[in-house]
User: Fold this.
Amino acid sequence: MKLVSIVGTNSDRSTNRKLLQFIATHFAKKAEIEILEIKHLPAFNEPEDETAPAAIEELSQKIKNADGVIISTPEYDHSIPASLKSVFEWLSYSEQPFIDKPVMIVGASLGSLGSSRAQGQLRQILDSPELKARVLPSAEFLLGRSGEAFNTEGQLVYPEKVAELEDIFNEFLLFVEITNRLIEEQKTRQPKKEHFSWKDIIR
Assistant:
């Protein structure tokens, strides 16, 4: 199974990156996981020619080609970072690669609560009409005290969190398999529906 994971911040010191690096190595025998960065992407500006930058198109294609997506978000002022929200604005405006894509949300924060509010907000965003992702239900991975959570080799040092992550990841692999099988069956049984677009309504 091929997955991509998105570091949901432009910070160079983010423990969310460390979390995704741990996931990629810890589960290497179960899935091929490519880590994608957003720190080089421009802020969304709704260009007049309605064309997304090449870097956004490249990110979109990687998401389309993946069986599923893992997103790791920090929490800034009870919400996801502006840089991550900008990426979703680009993707919903252009190629809409998240439609029917299986997604797992995780998050790390220096405080004790993980990124619970940001994850809740991210679920709402991914449910919006031009994203319409298939988010793994009833599963949150909240890594609190993340500044002390990794050793010098990048290993997660909280055994109970490793066990929790293993359970959620195994559930996600099954969710990806079932969701993609369901989507394929729907495509063969029903005529293709046009994607929702606010621009069509405005026009």
